[in-house]
Design goal:
- Helix 4 crosses helix 8.
- The relative contact order is 0.16.
- The chain has a seven-stranded mixed β-sheet. The chain has a four-stranded antiparallel β-sheet with strand order 9-10-13-12. A two-stranded parallel ribbon has the order 1-11.
- The longest helix is centred in the last third of the chain and has 21 residues.
- The protein has two domains: 134 residues, Aspartate Aminotransferase, domain 1 (Alpha-Beta Complex), CATH 3.90.1150; 240 residues, Aspartate Aminotransferase, domain 2 (3-Layer(aba) Sandwich).
- By secondary structure, the protein is α/β, with parallel strands linked by helices.
Length: 416
């Protein structure tokens, strides 16, 4: 009799459906020869976006310096470049010692929470959220408490609800701005209110700003670190999105605000960084060039730029639908599309995503993957070109028509 190897109980409640069963099903379909339009992940390289040449050259030219381990916090030129960027944005009191380089922001989210949390500690996380935040809190023995950012508020945080959720066990609050998955960009007034709330309750501010330069029209991403003074603020960013270098696996977290009294925590984070030795060294050599050079993303998000025009095609595709609704995204590379349940009673995001994949060969991420309490949304990326997105919404409308014709409460896998 074979022994059953049980997984760790710490994984209970941990989900990352963006790369889950639906994505695995899509991969199997591709191996059988089907062409899948994958809108589930913000992966610029998949849609022909290239890392700026100057960054690639900087990495190649420094390969001879990249064969050994570097300092656990990262190479000095990369950390100093982050400091200079922070200073240019109005953040004061930051030094290279306050910067940690990581294998993408994902690793640093885990490390910062691991250094902070004791069993049962609570972290305020937005809903919808990027699910790695909830998963990392859970894996590090904490409890993710979701504050609502509902469609009715255009996915802006409900500040009154946020404060009601704070307890004696609350240690930190997570802000994702520009937001993944909704594309919401928070105004200064909202960010200032969150900063005052965090200062009042002595909460660590964890500000995920990986999409900080991806904004459209008049929207502007305000660095949280410019508003937080009387508590510790951790700002996360990296090369993956703005610089289209996901595979380089280079991210950073920089600490600012009230650094007095934070040294034991920073020492704990330094210990954890030491245990993994260091982050990817070759990619770090691209940081100084990236942050100090021409910011090519501005052309992409301006009128006529590819991301701007793809966003426009996405908005138009939703507007033309009889079933879909959308709060237009002001930033990032996603849209959190809603379905009118009056037109499709009983709509379920998981069943829809499965049917859309099987029948139309389009892969989206169900909204409940992002820790929502409602199941009538799904996330798509606007990375494909306009023509591809136009085709996506043509296929999507056909699937929705089929669902409406037979009743949206039908089991999509059986048709009965």
């Amino acid at each position: 009799m074979n022994q059953l190897i049980e997984p760790s109980q710490s994984l209970r409640g941990v989900r990352y459906e963006i790369r889950g069963k639906l994505a695995n099903r899509a991969h199997d379909m591709q191996r059988r020869g089907h062409e899948i339009i994958a809108l589930n992940i913000g992966n610029p390289g998949l849609f022909g976006f290239r890392t700026p040449e100057t960054m690639r050259l900087a990495m190649i030219e420094n390969l001879q310096l990249s064969e050994g381990y570097c300092h656990q916090k990262g190479i000095f030129p990369a950390r100093e470049a982050v400091v200079m960027q922070q200073q240019e944005r109005g953040v004061t009191g930051v030094m290279a010692d306050h910067v940690f380089m990581g294998n993408g922001v994902s690793e640093l989210i885990d490390l910062t929470l691991r250094a902070l949390l004791n069993t049962g500690d609570e972290v305020l996380v937005p809903s919808p959220d990027y699910p790695l935040w909830t998963a990392s809190v859970t894996l590090n023995c904490g409890k993710a408490v979701h504050y609502p950012c509902p469609p009715e508020l255009r996915f802006q945080p409900d500040l009154e609800a946020m404060e009601r959720l704070i307890t004696a066990r609350t240690r930190a609050i997570v802000i994702i701005n520009p937001n993944n998955p909704t594309g919401a960009v928070y105004p200064r007034q909202t960010l200032e209110a969150i900063a005052r709330l965090a200062e009042k309750h002595r909460l660590l501010v964890l500000s995920d700003e990986i999409y900080d330069q991806m904004t459209y029209g008049d929207a502007a991403a305000i660095p949280m670190a410019t508003l937080v003074n009387d508590t510790l603020c951790a700002t996360f960013s990296g090369l993956s999105k703005v610089y289209r270098a996901c595979g380089f696996r280079v991210g950073w977290v920089v600490f600012s605000g009230k650094l007095e009294g934070a040294q034991p925590y920073l020492d704990a984070l330094d210990l954890l960084a030491s245990l993994r030795l260091c982050s990817n060294v070759p990619g770090q050599w691209a940081v100084q060039t990236a942050l100090g050079g021409f910011q090519s993303v501005r052309d992409l998000v301006s009128p006529g730029g590819r991301l701007f025009e793809s966003r426009r095609a996405l908005i138009e595709g939703v507007a033309a639908s009889r079933y879909l609704r959308l709060v237009p995204p002001d930033g990032a590379m996603y849209a959190f599309v809603g379905v009118d349940t009056a037109a499709l009673p009983g709509f379920d995001d998981q069943s829809f995503a499965l049917e859309l994949l099987d029948k139309a060969h389009v892969l989206v991420a169900p909204g409940t993957s992002f820790n929502t309490t409602y199941n009538n949304h799904f996330r798509v990326t606007n990375l494909p070109d306009e023509a591809t997105l136009t085709e996506v919404f043509r296929r999507m409308e056909q699937v929705l028509d089929d669902m409406a014709a037979r009743g949206a409460d039908t089991d999509a896998t059986t048709g009965r």
